[in-house]
Amino acid sequence: MAKAGAPGTSPFGPKMCAPVIMKYGSDEQKKRHLPPMLNSDLIWCQGYSEPGSGSDLASLRTKAERRSDPSGDFYIVNGQKTWTTLAQTADWIFCLVRTSNEGKRQEGISFLLIDMQTPGISVEPIITADGNRAGTQEVNSVFFTDVKVPVSNRVGEENMGWTYAKYLLEFERGGNPYSPRLRSGFERLKRLASSMPEGEESILSDHAWREKLARMDIEISGLEMFEMEFYSKLASGQNPGPLSSMIKLRGTEVMQQVQEYAVEAASWYSMPFPEQRAWNANVEPIGPEGADVLAPRYFNGRKMTIYGGSSEVQRGIMSKVMLGL
Ligand SMILES: Cc1cc2nc3c(=O)[nH]c(=O)nc-3n(C[C@H](O)[C@H](O)[C@H](O)COP(=O)(O)OP(=O)(O)OC[C@H]3O[C@@H](n4cnc5c(N)ncnc54)[C@H](O)[C@@H]3O)c2cc1C
Q: What residues does ligand 1 touch, defined as CB less than 6 Å away?
């Protein structure tokens, strides 16, 4: 058996690392970057979005100008990325940059791999609604000022980055299974609902609640089928295609529904005063176990239908690719 982390292996088994997944990039790039990526020795972040270029990603303006000197060929990168998840801890960033303004916007974009330690890169936290309390910093702005990137760090051909980025998004959108997390969230929700009193019984005896939970159970089962299809496609070397948009769309929307029902079930217990939640407040949380995290989780979960392409964008892809509209 191949050593874990060796090139061409994957924690999910050899087939999950089939050539179709690692379709782009030179052999040299694969050899250098895949093993530490698989071992989590090096952390990567994604530099696609820019201020004003989110859903309309092809409008991105971070510029890479090609130059050369005695040390070789390189790009000089200038611009800004935004919403970059965990850029504060990342060692590398994969970046979409503009290398041409000729022709269609999509045809002037290239895909660069950039070491975050390169001079000229700075990272600033974006303060989110929770105030980025200790340990909660998630998103950042990343600034590039005259950042020198070797041409050998470009994936594939110049101006073909859009094709590679779209391909990668197919895997990002479906490659993070939702159904196991949804199942456990659903089981927690049922336990919570059965512990919340309504008269002599629990709210689970309420017909409307039972119907809501039954619908959710069916949704999760449906998603499990889609996800099994996704992984069987990967195992047989196929692209997921628009199936990943379906999974992203339903996975995130049902996840938000679980979070919403949990807040509804726990009622005011889900919203303790922040002082009561501080580690040194010496106040035991009140209400059912784990209820005090439900409202923060609900608010944090609002992001899920935005990142990786918003729900509207996923619906747009599905209507175009699957329905031909
Ligand atoms: C928590 C979080 C983490 C993220 N992490 C990263 C990251 O690591 N790397 C990265 O590159 N990006 C990241 N993003 C950015 C994310 O991909 C964008 O936020 C997303 O693509 C939406 O772009 P926008 O925010 O510019 O909104 P906009 O594109 O301005 O959209 C605003 C609203 O208009 C709607 N809309 C826009 N266009 C259409 C259309 N054609 N049809 C119908 N409705 C439309 C959208 O659905 C949305 O509701 C992250 C975002 C969040 C919230």
A: 45-49, 54-55, 83-85, 138-139, 303, 306-307, 309-310, 312-313, 316
